[in-house]
Amino acid sequence: MSNGSSRSSRGSGSASSSSWRTRWKPDRGHVAVAAETLLTLTGLLTGFRAEHPGVDIRLYQSSAPAMAEQLRAGEVDLCFASQPLPGPDLRTAELLREEVLLAVPPGHRLAERGRVRLADVAGEPFVTTRPGYWPRELADRVFAAAGLHPDYTCETDEPGATGELIVAGLGVGLVPEFSRRPEAHARGVWLHLDAPDCYRSLTLVWRADAYFSVAAQRLSDFAREHFRNL
After folding, report:
1. Given CA atoms 152, 153, 154, 160 in this order, what sign does their dihedral have?
2. What is the mean pLDDT of residues 71-85?
3. DSSP string of 12-35?
4. What distance in Å separates the CA atoms of residue 75 and residue 31, rounded to the nearest whole number?
5. What distance in Å separates the CA atoms of residue 189 and residue 104, rounded to the nearest whole number?
């Protein structure tokens, strides 16, 4: 009787272990991600999906206030933000810090300069995003600090489209140095801007008290390595 019970117990344990291995697979699972522009993530996601093809990724393009709400509601696991998402319940890790440049279309009167002042472009048509996205928040801040008022003539909900709109001749605007990479395809002229704190800090943001799935942890680790090697 005792031997039979022992064999039954061992068999049950083996079946349970087998079931656990079936359910938990390191290259399976899902993760939900939000970012102000998904174009920043294309290289990252291409590499991640090649290494972890079984992980399903859901993507949201959201403004900074919307991302904070999505994290707190549990709608997303991770956010890639280029401006602070405030709150004691959120944790951040900086992935990338880069200079933000002034982009002008080819043939523009400033195109031959290597560096310009804000006063040089104060009267120019300015391409930016709607409030809530990092290029607009940065432009508002640096112009206000200089006592100037930009002429916003083109506002978009896609930060990644700013460079193409500038190249099309719709105005000048702020773009991250990342936009000069070959994969960005923008063909404008990039100038250094004499303005304090004119940079972008790309951060990974998550909720401190949220459960971090294996898939979310793998993407987090992969993102840190990806941007470290740029």
Report:
1. negative
2. 96
3. HHHHHHHHHHHH--TT-EEEEEEE
4. 10
5. 5
